[in-house]
Specification:
The complex is a heterodimer of chains A (522) and B (479). Chain A is mainly alpha-helical. Chain A has a domain of 227 residues. Chain A is 76% helix and 3% strand. Chain B is globular and about 70 Å long. With 479 residues, chain B is mainly α. Classes of the chains: A mainly alpha (522), B mainly alpha (479). Chains A and B meet through helix 6, helix 7 and helix 8 of A and helix 17, helix 18 and helix 20 of B.
């Protein structure tokens, strides 16, 4: 048991990978067995991850469940894993969304079943690896590894323009991540000189160049501003493309629309979080001075994303594209809260990431349900569905409300906290955010009205079946989570308390005006 | 001065002599045996035996021979071993291929052995004359090999083009060498270096020599703007020879560049750094962009190999420890990965199917899933996606330029790495996302399978646990 407890992070991450290797042994023809096996693997993967939540010490500000063993010694890259409250929540989100996405594919995927599930499991392992890594080299490996299965999921099982969408997704992310790699390397080579000047750091992490994220956190305050400036930009490109922030968001609608339902769910619920996680884990703590310096730019882009994403969403004739653009808007909120850089903003930002995973993931599932029945997602083709699919209409309503931030549901908690954080910083930020909420309510309610209410005048819609047990099973966990966070968010905030305080104190340690002064000297 | 020839010198070139011997044996056996495949096996035995000689010399740290004309050091050892491996893998993929082309002759194997021997002399050379003789031994054997498909007009054309341009560039290179000799009064690298040190940096004679040597060298590694011969030669040559050229000839040329520029031309570094930076940026970019529009797999991989030459130059430009380690590491990685990819292209050639067009790979996954997945891994490695070996190679190059502060070049390089993904993905799309046609299929001969397996093992091994290989590369460059 001790072994399990100490290595739980590795077990969670490599569980789907091991499952995939076994899956490869199953003959291609036995699709039912393959489906059962894949579901079993991800579901048990979720169960395996539960002890992580229960054994997590919420009062410990340090990384927990740390395993640190040498990997590529000549480079100073280690197999270093650990979690704090932020990564804990994202890991739990990933292990929860994984089984739901896999289960939702049961009927939707009819061709090349074996490869599909193999890629799903590989993707799951890659995403978890990103969240557990505390070594930049290892992080980068997982970050890139995960591109390949996602590329195939879109490119093979996607819609009519799948090849275009898949390659766009791949290239966008790749451009961002290779630039991020340069930033990582710059920090890697900078470390020894700073460690040499600060004996406490060199004692803790050694004198040589290192990819250890904790070591880089330690040198963060001492990094020269000029370096921080450029590294921040390099990281910004990598992470902002992933989030996606305006103006790097254009891959997202294509990828979302063309991806199969499960792909969209994972893309929205987990993949986008890797970008925001990158800002939280790397940009802010390692580059505090540059973070402060770039706040105006980041907030401006976030606000543009909120408003622009919402306006574009409103005009979409395709349900899935609408939800995709709503993601741009919601992720704008996440970035706004994050770069308010105060406890409320950061807490709200992280909670909102989880909320977005839940509600947008659910919305994609909901769109997928109707697509499986009608093979169209055009809003004009639908209408009055609540007459034939009442249960579906209820679930859709709950998730619409969750998405627009109705009290009692999760979205409210996140948006409220973000707004509180933004207001503490600047009234106008909050005003812009508020406008985004109003617009969000408008496009979501309008979507709901056009698809669910009204006359059922399209004959093709008249005999649609309501949700089956499998579809219920994919959505009930998300509904429970939406109400849980909406009614009793305390455990989540408690998980975030320590790591957020740590981030805030890092930022507060930046002397006011220092970045500007440094710029002028340069 | 010592006696010029000492019997102990023979030990240093044992591996080379043995290759020459086996080359002759193959030629003799060519007259005796009907089944030419036997010659391929003899060649493999010869390469293995040469490798045995080489392994015994592993611990030699510095062994000058022939009065300093040649030197065996860890650097030369590493590259000699690499050439032997590349030659063996190339021979392994040739045997069935030559049968299909109806051109299975003993000369083919003998020429590969002679070319390999030439490379081994090149990398051991400490003297311009030795270097040049090694280079020409390699080049002339390669000219013939490129034109080996006698009845195929494309192969003849490729050979002629390659020969004319190659001879021309060798002439320019030789002119540069003669200027260096004029400056130094000697052909030894070390003496040339000392002589250049004495002259001012802007001395026109040294600049002319540098310019001529650079032009010749850039031709040999197919760097822009001297790359035009590459796609034609690579496309027309027998595929197995293209594979051999793209790894072994390239590695040999880079080994030569490293020695020449870091020893003989070291005093002119401020000049050649600028030239190389421009050439590297251009080579990467032109190679990648031109590759995007290719629909012939051989041409596509030819342009990709051009761009890889641009990346490797980064190691020299960075001119630091990381960069020096990067060159052998990258060439090692590239040898395995690229030969793996080429092995599959070789297998595309079957009776009645030329198997060069990208469409002829479409739906490959449905016919040969394992081969398609292997090809995917090799392509990802060529693009530098972890956890494949290609990433480790690119990591070292990028790290080297970041460490030396060439930030703009680093950005150009990584953006190129992203662009390259685009055309590698075109092959992936064909293999995995298009339906199979009647032309889709592979002729998986045992030799091809063996090469694919070896390439896979090393591509993943270097990608996941590169420590032993990094240690080897460090040993090679003396850190």
């Amino acid at each position: 048991m001790d072994f399990f407890n100490n290595n739980i992070l590795s077990i969670i991450t490599f569980w789907p990978l091991a499952g995939m290797l076994v899956l490869l042994l199953i003959p291609k023809g036995s699709t039912t067995l393959i489906k059962w096996w894949a579901n079993l693997v991800v579901l048990s993967g979720f169960l395996v991850s539960l002890p992580l939540w229960f054994s997590f010490n919420f009062d410990d500000p340090q990384m927990q469940k740390v395993v640190n063993v040498p990997w590529i010694q000549t480079l100073g890259a280690n197999y270093h894993v650990g979690v704090d409250g932020i990564s804990l929540l994202l890991i739990m989100l990933t292990t929860l969304i994984g089984p739901l996405a896999v289960l939702s594919s049961w009927d939707a995927i009819q061709v090349r079943v074996k490869e599909y599930y193999a890629f799903m499991l590989l993707l799951q392992a890659g995403m978890l690896g990103v969240f557990i890594s505390l070594d930049f080299f290892m992080f980068y490996v997982f970050w890139e590894v995960m591109l390949v299965p996602m590329y195939f999921l879109i490119g093979v099982w996607g819609g009519p323009r799948k090849l275009y969408a898949a390659i766009k997704f791949f290239l966008y992310t790749l451009v961002g991540s290779v630039l991020m790699l340069l930033g990582i390397l710059a920090l890697y080579f900078q470390y020894p000189s700073i460690a040499a000047a600060h004996s406490d750091i060199s004692q803790a992490f050694g004198p040589g160049p290192t990819f250890d994220v904790l070591a880089l956190h330690a040198i963060g305050p001492y990094l020269p501003f000029n370096l921080q400036f450029w590294v921040f930009l390099a990281f910004f490109v990598g992470f902002a493309i992933k989030v996606p922030m305006f103006p790097f968001h254009t891959w997202l609608p294509d990828a979302h629309v063309e991806a199969p339902t499960a792909g969209s769910v994972i893309l929205a619920a987990v993949l986008l979080k890797m970008g925001t996680y990158g800002f939280l884990r790397f940009s802010i703590p390692i580059l505090p001075a540059a973070t402060v310096y770039f706040v105006p730019m980041m907030v401006t882009l976030a606000i543009i994303a909120i408003i622009y994403g919402a306006l574009v969403a409103m005009m979409q004739p395709d349900m899935k594209k609408l939800v995709a653009y709503s993601s741009v808007s919601h992720m704008g909120f996440v970035m706004l809260g994050m770069f308010a850089l105060n406890p409320n903003g950061l807490n709200g930002s992280i909670i909102q990431q989880i909320n977005h995973g839940i509600s947008t993931g659910a919305l994609f599932l909901i769109v997928g349900i109707i697509y499986e029945r009608r093979h169209t997602r055009e809003i004009a083709q639908l209408g009055g569905l609540s007459n034939v699919m009442p249960a579906y209409a209820v679930v859709f309503l709950i998730m619409t409300m969750s998405s627009i931030g109705l009290p009692l549901l999760n979205g409210f908690i996140g948006e409220f906290t973000i707004m509180a954080g933004a207001l503490q910083k600047n009234l106008w930020w909050a005003v812009a955010g508020g406008a985004g909420i109003v617009l969000g309510a408008a496009y979501m309610l309008w979507l709901y009205q056009r698809t669910m209410f009204g006359k059922l005048d399209n004959p093709a819609n008249q005999h649609l079946k309501d949700m089956n047990w499998r579809e219920w099973a994919t959505l009930i966990p998300l509904i429970i989570m939406a109400f849980w966070i909406g009614l009793y968010p305390a455990p989540f905030f408690r998980a975030l308390d320590k790591p957020v305080n740590k981030l805030v104190s890092t930022i507060q340690a930046v002397p006011p005006g220092a970045p500007q002064a440094a710029r002028e000297v340069r | 001065m010592d006696q010029f020839f000492q019997s102990s010198d023979l030990g240093v070139i044992g591996a080379e002599l043995e290759l020459a011997l086996f080359g002759m044996i193959v030629l003799v056996f060519d007259l005796l045996v009907k089944n030419k495949r036997v010659l391929g096996y003899i060649t493999l035995v010869g390469l293995a035996w040469s490798g045995y000689f080489l392994i015994k010399l592993y611990n030699v740290l510095d062994a000058p021979a022939y009065g300093g004309m040649l030197r065996l050091d860890p650097f030369a050892w590493f590259f000699k071993a690499l050439f032997l491996v590349a030659a063996a893998l190339a021979v392994a993929i040739s045997i069935r291929y030559l049968d299909i082309e109806h051109e299975n002759h003993g000369e083919y194997y003998a020429l590969i052995l002679f070319a390999t021997m030439g490379m081994m002399f090149m990398v051991g050379a400490m003297d311009l004359v030795t270097l040049y003789i090694g280079l020409e031994t390699m080049a002339i054997a390669t000219y013939v090999l490129v034109g080996f498909l006698r009845s195929n007009p494309r192969s003849n054309e490729a050979s002629l083009k390659y020969f004319l341009l190659g001879a021309f560039s060798s002439g320019i290179l030789l002119y540069g060498f003669s200027l260096l000799y004029g400056i130094a009064g000697s052909t030894r690298f070390v003496i040339i270096s000392d002589a250049l040190e004495q002259r001012s940096l802007s001395d026109p004679l040294s600049l002319m020599a540098l310019g001529a040597v650079c032009a010749g060298m850039f031709f040999k590694i197919a760097a822009v703007p001297f790359h035009q011969w590459t796609p034609d030669a690579y496309e027309g040559a027998p595929t197995s020879i293209t594979a051999y050229m793209s790894v072994a000839v390239k590695a040999a040329s880079f080994a030569m560049i490293v020695k020449l520029f870091l020893i003989a031309l070291a005093p002119l570094q401020p000049h050649w750094l600028i030239i190389m930076s421009a050439v590297s940026a251009l080579t990467m970019t032109v190679g990648n962009i031109a590759a995007i529009t290719q629909s012939n797999v051989k041409r596509l991989l030819a342009y990709s190999s051009i761009s890889h030459a641009g990346y490797i130059l980064l190691g020299l430009i960075a001119n630091n420890q990381t960069g020096l380690i990067a060159i052998p590491i990258y060439l090692l990685v590239y040898t395995f990965t690229n030969l793996g990819a080429w092995a599959i292209v070789v297998a595309l050639r079957r009776k009645d199917v030329i198997g060069e067009h990208i469409d002829e790979m479409s739906g490959l996954f449905f016919r040969h899933p394992v081969a398609a997945i292997l090809m995917l891994i090799f392509l990802l490695s060529l693009a530098g996606i972890p956890p494949t070996a290609g990433f480790i190679g690119k990591y070292f190059l990028f790290a080297a330029v970041i460490q030396s502060g060439h930030n703009v070049l680093a950005v150009i390089a990584v953006l190129n790495a992203a662009i390259s993904m685009y055309f590698y993905l075109r092959i992936v799309v064909a293999m995995f996302m298009q339906d199979a046609t009647e032309k889709t299929g592979l002729d998986l001969a045992p030799g091809v399978l063996a090469v694919m397996a070896i390439a896979l093992v090393f591509t993943l091994w270097i990608g996941l646990y590169p420590d032993p290989f990094i240690a080897m590369a460090r040993h090679a460059v003396g850190f």
